[in-house]
# Entry
Amino acid sequence: MTSDPDIHRAAHELIEQHGDAADIDAARRASALMEAGDLEGGTVWKRIVKAVERLRQREPGDKTVH
# Structure
């Protein structure tokens, strides 16, 4: 199982790379993996989608370390 800190780091990196499309990219990856039968990989990417959403909910000026 992928750790919460790893999920958080992946979400942060995805936001850095894809900006506003980060959640869409993560959702596509999750869907592709699930369709291919990789349930564990799909579940990890679903967790990343949720982490991206949580990171985006923070205030723009929030100085919390991501």
